[in-house]
Specification:
This is Anti-sigma factor. This protein is α+β, with helices and mostly antiparallel strands. It has 9 helices and 8 strands. Among the domains are: 59 residues; 119 residues, Phosphorylase Kinase, domain 1 (2-Layer Sandwich).
Length: 280
């Protein structure tokens, strides 16, 4: 275990936050924090910086993966030549000496505590994040998260797909038009082997969303979701994304937002969405 007493206080506190201290070192640092106000203030800034970075990393990891990237990965062919038959390069072992390893550890401690200190010492980091959240326009991806959740629920309970069955077409038309405020037609997708099962009204970002549900002979389920636009979109182009096992195709037309949701393995979602856009 590295002797922390030879390191700056910032490095010692960073190691404490990362859990890289022995029980004795932890006890010493906790005693110092209890008696040293400056040490407590620095420890709080470092902790704040670590939490801030962790939240930003979580936000990045939640971004949806482009559907085209996932499909290209799935369609990549394995190499024809076995890996064992390929020419191998001589391996060079690069093992640092004891002094080099100690120097590298010291550098990493200093860099880590420096990043945490400057991020934590940023005067209004939380205020900036809060102000951005309160003044920015409503995030249209919020309702896509709700649509994805409802689609996942449908896939897990195929015996209870709809509120109003397809046999009550007139009620579906009047009900959804009144609830959503958007005129529509139920697209006929039988030529593509999708059978209309009926409709639901769900909530997307706390607003009503119409959902038309279809299934095929393989047990797959897709749904067309639509609602009034909260604000004019930047583009009406079709956009494909994927969230876990759910593929999404979004577009806008005449003040209405549309989403086609289905299995991410369904390669025809984009083509099907364009057909639906002309029929709905």
């Amino acid at each position: 275990m590295l002797d922390l007493r030879k390191l700056p206080l910032e490095a010692q506190l960073t190691a404490l936050l990362d859990g890289e201290v022995s029980p004795e070192q932890r006890h010493e640092l906790e005693q110092r924090l209890a008696s040293d106000e400056n040490a407590r203030r620095l420890h709080e800034k470092l902790r704040h910086g670590a939490d801030f970075g962790r939240r930003r990393l979580d936000d990045v990891l939640k971004e949806p993966v482009p559907l085209s990237l996932v499909r290209s990965i799935k369609s990549t062919q394995p190499p024809k030549t076995p890996i064992a038959q390929r020419a191998t390069r001589p391996q060079v072992k690069l093992a640092p000496s004891g002094p080099q390893a100690l120097a590298a550890a010291l550098i990493l401690f200093v860099v880590g505590c420096g990043i945490g200190y400057f991020v934590g010492n940023s005067p209004d980091a939380d205020e900036i994040a809060t102000t951005t959240a309160t003044t920015a326009p409503a995030n249209t991806s919020d309702w896509l998260g709700d649509v994805t959740a409802y689609q996942r629920l449908l896939m897990r309970q195929p015996r209870h797909l709809v509120e109003v069955p397809a046999s009550q077409a007139e009620e579906i038309s009047s009900w959804l038009t009144t609830a959503i405020g958007v005129p529509f037609r139920v697209p006929d997708l039988s030529a593509e082997s999708w059978t209309f099962q009926g409709a639901r009204v769900i909530l997307g970002d706390s607003r009503p969303v119409g959902q038309l549900v279809y299934s095929n002979n393989d047990g797959d389920i897709i749904s067309i979701c639509f609602r009034k636009d909260a604000q004019p979109p930047e583009t009406d182009d079709f956009k494909e994304t994927i969230k876990d096992e759910i593929g999404l195709v979004t577009w806008h037309n005449a003040g209405t937002s549309y989403v086609l949701a289905g299995p991410s393995s369904e390669a025809t979602l984009g083509q099907l969405a364009m057909e639906i856009a002309t029929a709905i």
